[in-house]
Amino acid sequence: MSKFIDNLGFMAWDKRHEKLLKVAILNAKTGDVLYDLDNFFKTNITSMPQGAGKEDVILLPYTGHEDRNENPLFEGVIVKMNDDLYEVTYNDYNGFTVANIYNWFSVVYADKVCEIVGNVFEDVDLRKKVRGER
User: Fold this and answer.
1) Closest listed residue to residue 103, CA positions, set 119, 116, 77, 85
2) CATH architecture type of domain 63-131
3) What is the pTM for the complete model shown?
4) Residue 10: which of 64, 84, 81 has the closest Cα?
5) Which residues have C-beta within 8 Å of that of residue 47, sequence separation ≥ 6?
6) Residue 8 pLDDT grade (very low, low, confident, very high; cuts 50, 70, 90)
7) Rounded CA gap, 22 and 94, in Å?
8) What share of the chain has pLDDT > 70, as a percent?
9) Lower CB density within 10 Å: C or N end of the chain?
């Protein structure tokens, strides 16, 4: 398993600080999140909450797969494969997929052959390309 994955296997998009952070603790009852504080301190956020409530975060689960550089594939990352861009997504029918406006397939086929180039939260131009937005 990748050196970047902990036992929990989640990242979270913190809406308040607009930062993508590793989750250290997830309260299953309340949905509250505590970040990996080492990672949190490196983000230069001046107000330092211990975590965030479920309304302040979007949880991004680990797919169980990695890119060709052994970086973990989480929901919401954008990958490049065969000169095409895809978003890692999840739905109840197909599970984790890589998809763009033209095609989709299981994330299994992207394992170790794709390369992460961004994410849908921080890279608006890439997100628009992948989703066909204007």
Assistant:
1) 85
2) Roll (2.30)
3) 0.80
4) 64
5) none
6) low
7) 25
8) 81
9) C
